[in-house]
Amino acid sequence: MKILIVEDEVLAAKRMMQLLTEIEPDCKLFGPFDTVSSAVSHLKVTQDYDLIFLDIQLADGKSFSIFEAVKVNIPVIFTTAYDEYALQAFTIHSIDYLLKPVNKEKLHESLEKFKKIRNHFGGADPNGHLYELITKLQAPTQSPFRDRFLINKGDSMVPVKVNEVACFFAGEKVVTLFTIENKQYIIPQTLDELEAKLDPRLFFRVNRQFIVAAEAIQKVHNYFNFKLKVEIKPDPGTEIIVSRARASEFKSWLSE
Question: Are 154 and 242 within one domain?
């Protein structure tokens, strides 16, 4: 089996290739290609592969644009930390998807699924609905907000769903994500970037240091000078104060 790897994260690519070699010792691996442009250039020259493992977010953009630039006749398994709507679509319209960090058992199941489809359809293209998938993902009904975060932790990556987040705290130099279970992760985004990508029905920017999740709020107290003091669970160890200017907006948001 000849497999092409398209992945821009070095550790993720190495792990994928190692696991594939363990599961399919006779497979031949090619790549990894880490950009849309390099993958397109390569696929225009040759598509002599049985399968592609394709990350969605590459160094120079989303991998969907590969299919706009070149017709791909190779079955695809996505590796992704994408939102739930996309994951459901991938399950229907492609061979499979794998949520990073890739699990060996899930990878083995995906390969077995591919083999069954290949044996059933023979030479037919099992990705015939891929362009329909791209259209659906780009449709206005797709949520523009983040559904999860993929966080680097040592040599591995940890997926954290948005509904597991209690708050984001901006310290002196870093932003920390606190989960409902009181796990803490340093993330590269600023609060301004997060605020633009989080669903405003679920999260509120209370001040320059905190974005809080509605589900994490336990109590709200009146504070001096018409400010508000917010208690969340878990306690981040720093007082969360809503400014006088934002207090009315915060109360309206919380009561929705």
Answer: yes
Residue 91: predicted pLDDT: 45
What does the block give as tokens for 53?
């493992």
The pLDDT score that the predictor gives to residue 88 is: 45
- Give the domain range for residue 195: 148-255
- Residue where a domain terminates, one of 105, 138, 171: 138
- Report d(CA 163, CA 198) in Å as an integer: 11
For 184, the token pair is 């803490």
Ramachandran angles phi, psi of 241, nearest 5°: -115, 130
Q: Which residues of the chain have pLDDT under 70?
A: 82-93, 120-143
Q: Taking the model in full, what pTM does it have?
A: 0.50
Decide which of 138, 169, 194 is a domain's last residue.
138
- Cα 236 from Cα 105, distance rounded (Å): 36
Element (H, E) at 4: strand 2-6
167 and 238 in contact (C-beta within 8 Å)? Answer: no
Does residue 99 contact residue 69 with C-beta atoms inside 8 Å?
no
> Do 206 and 239 have their domain in common?
yes
Cβ proximity of 41 and 66 under 8 Å: no
Q: Name the amino acid, one letter, at 197.
A: K
Judge whether 35 lies within some domain.
yes
Kind plus residue range of the DSSP H or E element containing 253 = helix 244-255
Per-state percent for the chain, helix, strand, coil, to nearest 5? 35, 30, 35
- What does the DSSP 8-state code read for residue 108? H
Q: Which two tokens stand for residue 18?
A: 């190692």
99-148 pLDDT per residue, tens: 888 889 999 998 998 887 777 555 445 444 444 444 454 444 456 788 88
The Cα-based distances of 139 to 85, 91, 128, 200, 236 in angstroms read 12, 18, 19, 21, 38
